[in-house]
Write a structure and sequence with these properties.
Helix content is 87%, strand content 0%. The chain contains 6 helices and no strands. The protein starts with a helix and ends with a helix.
Length: 197
């Protein structure tokens, strides 16, 4: 394998490792968000966007070159081969290398986009988790306040009902005094004595 394809294969293996690492279930998205927001990763991202674009261009060029090589070894060229066994094996070896290089470049390109999207989704999930936790706390506070207001409202209704009952009793008491025809004050001792006679 030539140097360029060794580098592409190493890059592909590193991408596979990173994708598997990001898919580990016991590392929470908030932990990944803290790692992504660290100063070292921030510095890598600042310079990494340019490097990512350059890398994508290089991978696209290598993919096109591998596709060209694969197309070069088509059936029409196989028919033009001499019938010696060594020539046929040499043809199959070159076809295998061209196809291997095509797959290496294609999967490296695919995983680079997949890796970038996976990092974006993990960051968004961490932000959504934090905002939903804040909304949950806010909703719990609002429900506690609503419960407290409902209890206060119930207490006010009881007081209002008690005041209405007192008003009804007072009106009934006044009507009873009018019917009996005398002034009666329940707190005055003379009125109680007069009421007994």
């Amino acid at each position: 394998m030539s140097l360029q394809w060794t580098v592409v294969a190493t890059f592909l293996y590193a991408e596979v490792f990173l994708v598997l690492l990001l898919c580990v279930p016991f590392v929470s998205p908030t932990r990944w968000q803290k790692i992504f927001k660290s100063r070292l990763v921030g510095l890598a991202v600042a310079y990494g966007n340019t490097a990512f674009v350059v890398l994508i261009v290089i991978l696209v060029l290598l993919l096109l070159d591998a596709y060209r090589e694969t197309r070069k070894y088509n059936a029409s060229e196989r028919a033009a081969l001499p019938t010696t066994p060594g020539a046929l094996e040499h043809f199959h070896m070159r076809l295998f290398r061209a196809q291997r290089n095509l797959y290496l470049a294609g999967f490296a390109l695919l995983l680079s986009f997949l890796l970038r999207r996976l990092v974006t989704l993990i960051s968004q999930q961490a932000l959504l988790g934090a905002s939903s936790q804040a909304f949950r706390k806010q909703a719990e506070g609002a429900s506690q306040a609503a419960r407290r207001y409902m209890e206060d409202n119930e207490a006010l209704r009881k007081v209002k009902w008690g005041l209405a009952l007192c008003g009804v009793l007072r009106a009934s008491w006044g009507r009873l005094r009018q019917l009996l025809g005398f002034q009666f004050s329940p707190s005055h001792p003379a009125a109680t004595a007069r009421g007994r006679r």
